[in-house]
Amino acid sequence: MRSLIVLVAAATTLTVRARPPIRGASPLAGDFFQRALQNTWRAVEATLGWSDLTGLGGYGEPFVAPDKSVYQWLASNDDFSKITKLIKYDESIVNLLDSSQGLTFFAPDNKALPSPRHRKDVHSIQVYHQDALPQLWSHVDILDEGDDDDDKEKKRRLFKAILHQVLLYHVLPYDSTSTRLGVNSTVQTALVAKDGSFDGQPRRIKIEKTLVPPAITLNMYAKVIQGDIEATNGVIHVVDHPLFPPISILDTAYMLPHWLSTTTSAAQKVHLEDALQYHYVRSQRDKKGDFEGAPDVTLFAPSNDAWKKLPEKLVLYLFSPFGSKALRKLLLFHTVPDYLIFSEWIHDARKEKDGNVVASGVEFDWEYTFPSGLKDHTLHVHITKTTPTIPVPGIAYFELQVENEKAETIDIVGRNGALHVIPSVLDPRKNDHLDEPNWEDWEDWLPKWGEA
Ligand SMILES: *[C@@H]1O[C@H](CO)[C@@H](O)[C@H](O)[C@H]1NC(C)=O
Fold first, then answer.
1. Average pLDDT for the chain
2. Which atom of ligand 1 is nearest to the CA of 344?
3. Ligand 1 mean position, distance from CA 363 (Å)
4. What residue owns the CA closest to ligand 1's atom 1?
5. Cα dist. 100→94, 95, 398 in Å?
6. What are phi and psi of 138, to 5 degrees?
7. In this structure, which residue's CA is closest to atom 8 in ligand 1?
């Protein structure tokens, strides 16, 4: 059995090296070639099976904590003294992790705070998120100081409020092994939105699971380095970065400039902040402010490459003062206001009660037409969830298409909604009978359409 595993592992390594990027069209490999490789890949995955993450991290032997609660386990382990210290400032979190039954806790170890491990594949979004809790951590002394002046006291209160939210975002209200984590594309946390955004729903975490090497990545930046530590009241997964509650979808897009800078400049240029951003604005008169912007929205964001596929003259036109109206309309066509569209959880924020139109289950094939942010225009969304032919626990594949365009990255979570990255700019004329979106004749219709 062991030698078989070694063999399969060796074969897998070879396959990995030979594996071209499956996302996005490669100029050399035709669709057929891609698909064939993808099938091979899936077959290898299926043969290998999902070996869970236990023991693969830097923590040697798998942990078992048969007689300790999640909190007790953290508090008794020197590698987690920093997160334990933070938890201790918040009695409600201590209680949650000590006495409630059935939960999952993503535990950043001491190395994750304050200076995150150096990683080569750092996105700018990671830099932002990496900074968040460490920054909080570096101010932690404020909590130990005696309450002297009002200003300090105010800071302390603010710190505690943020800390409470951040810690809750590390908790799932059910117990989920690493095997179970991988079957969902996003999961709901114990942190419920209370700022008017996300329709007051629990905030979510994006889960990405790869088999070789076995890895689970949360929100694109935090890696589970040790999974499945079983405590009496739940399960702990050690992460190499703290998690931070999501920011607005436009801010999230700003954090990914190598990917989405054209879309964000376009949004900025035509002042679409209010349709995509949700943030706190301090009022001028008194000190109190309020949240402004779009509380619930989904954005299908064309990648930088998508914009490059358009005729050059068209892009120049769109980004010129003459093209502003058309650009604004075009971008609005890529949004769905009032809906939080994740591949397994679709929430209609306009409904008073029960706005969940859930596509869920082990497998599904789900289609729906949503009203886009551009009046009288709809977007057709098709989502599938499949499992490998040979059933392997803990593996599921997701695909999301909008107007027949397959998203290259799905389910990026924002404070105020969902972000999916698509490889083409969508054509509002809905010419989806054409094989390739054709923009060559744009001069005949687009300027007029922009003015209409
Ligand atoms: C998560 O995945 C499981 C198994 O595939 C499924 O039954 C469940 O409905 C999913 N959860 C959501 C919220 O869709």
1. 80
2. 14
3. 9
4. 184
5. 10, 7, 32
6. -70, -15
7. 361
CB distance 79 to 110 below 8 Å: yes
Digit-coded pLDDT (tens) for 207-230:
998 776 778 999 988 899 988 899
| Residue closest by Cα to atom 5 of ligand 1 | 362
Tokens of 176: 């989920």
Ligand 1 atom index nearest CA of 188: 13
With a 6 Å cutoff on the Cβ, whether 362 touches ligand 1 is: yes
Per-residue pLDDT reduced to its tens digit, 266-315: 999 999 999 999 887 776 766 667 788 999 999 999 999 999 999 999 99
Ligand 1 centroid distance, CA of 452 (Å): 44
Q: Are strands 186-192 and 202-210 parallel, antiparallel or unpaired?
A: antiparallel
Q: What is the pLDDT of residues 344-400, one digit of tens each?
A: 999 999 987 767 777 788 899 999 999 999 999 999 999 999 987 776 677 889 999
Q: How far is the CA of 418 from the centre of ligand 1 (A)?
A: 18
What lies within 8 Å, CB to CB, of 356 at 6+ separation is 345, 346, 347, 348
CA-396 nearest atom, ligand 1: 5
| Residue 207 CA: distances (Å) to CA of 94, 217, 272, 341 | 26, 6, 29, 16
Same fold? 52-239, 249-451: yes
411 close to ligand 1 (CB < 6 Angstrom): no
240 lines ligand 1 (CB under 6 A): no
Structure tokens at 326: 């058309």
Provide the CB-side half-sphere exposure for 275 (13 A, CA).
21
Q: Which CATH architecture has domain 52-239?
A: Roll (2.30)
Domain boundaries, the chain: 52-239, 249-451
Say if ligand 1 is within 6 A of residue 39 CB: no
Architecture of the domain made up of 249-451: Roll (2.30)
Q: How many CB atoms lie within 10 A of CB 412?
A: 24
Work out the pLDDT band at 137, boundaries 50, 70, 90. Answer: low
